[in-house]
Amino acid sequence: MGAALKALEEKGGVAAVAACANLIGGSIASLPLHFYKRGADGSRQRDQASPLWWLFNERPCANWSAAAWWQFVSDSRMFHGDGFALMNRSTRGDRILSIEPWHPAYVQVDLDGDGRLLYEFHPRPGVDPVGARVRVREQDDVLHIPSAGFDGRRSPSMLRSALNHAAAAGE
Fold first, then answer.
1. Cα Rg of the chain, angstroms
2. Distance (Å, whole) CA 13 – CA 8
3. Residue 79 near residue 157, CB atoms below 8 Å
4. 165 pLDDT exceeds 90?
5. Contact 5, 163 (CB under 8 A)
6. Taking Cα atoms as reference points, which of 100, 53, 98, 104 lies closest to residue 77?
7. Given 3-state DSSP classes, what are the helix, strand and coil percentages for the chain, each rounded to the nearest 5?
8. Is 167 exposed, middle or buried (0-12, 13-18, 19+ CB in 10 A)?
9. Is pLDDT of 163 > 80?
């Protein structure tokens, strides 16, 4: 892959890839995410009072705007294969209070004894306090946005796959 990456750098392709990723992420971030509920007659009605609307369209968590959050998740999928976010719930567990994005390099995905996904969120240097512990969460408390090639746990990076194919074709 080194030769393909070097050729990409020499031709200014890295800047082009970054610009495309920024354009895609920015486009996704600019789109509203609507939520719906079922009416008494079974019809679908937009639910603008949903607390999830605020989280996905305005402020997913304390330090992130929705636009920055969507850009991060989009970039995570393109460059690393998956986008991850940890859903922090109320003490009763009945409400999602925040949706915290997590870099894919610090998430490990395994299966529990029942075949359900189990996530380990490892401390992120420079983000989490020194001494922070690994957070283990079941799939119901994680927003996992996979990309093409999802194998039930993780997805390959689309960009790394393209580089690998380019390197193989050039050899």
1. 19
2. 5
3. yes
4. no
5. yes
6. 104
7. 40, 25, 35
8. middle
9. no
Band (10; pLDDT cuts 50, 70, 90): low
Q: What is the pLDDT of residue 80?
A: 92
Check: CB of residue 150 under 8 Å from CB of residue 87: no
Buried/exposed 10-27: b ≥16 CB within 10 Å, e otherwise: eeeeeeebeeebeeebee
CB-based contact 73:85 (threshold 8 Å): yes
Residues paired with 138 in a beta bridge: 118
For 95-124, the pLDDT digits (tens) are 999 999 999 999 999 999 999 999 999 999
Rounded Cα distance, 54 and 59, in Å: 6
For the chain, give the number of residues.
171
Task: Say whether pTM exceeds 0.85.
Answer: no
Going by the DSSP 8-state scheme, the letter that residue 110 receives in this structure is: E
Q: How far apart are CA 65 and CA 49, in angstroms?
A: 19
* pLDDT for residue 11: 55
Kindly list the distances between the CA atom of residue 161 and the CA atoms of 17, 71, 168, in Å, as whole numbers in the listed order: 14, 21, 11
Residue type, 100: E
The 10s digit of each residue's pLDDT in 71-88 is 999 999 988 999 999 999
Which whole-number Å values give the CA distances from 87 to 27, 138, 143, 166, in the listed order? 24, 10, 7, 37
Count Cβ atoms below 10 Å from residue 95 Cβ, excluding itself.
Answer: 11
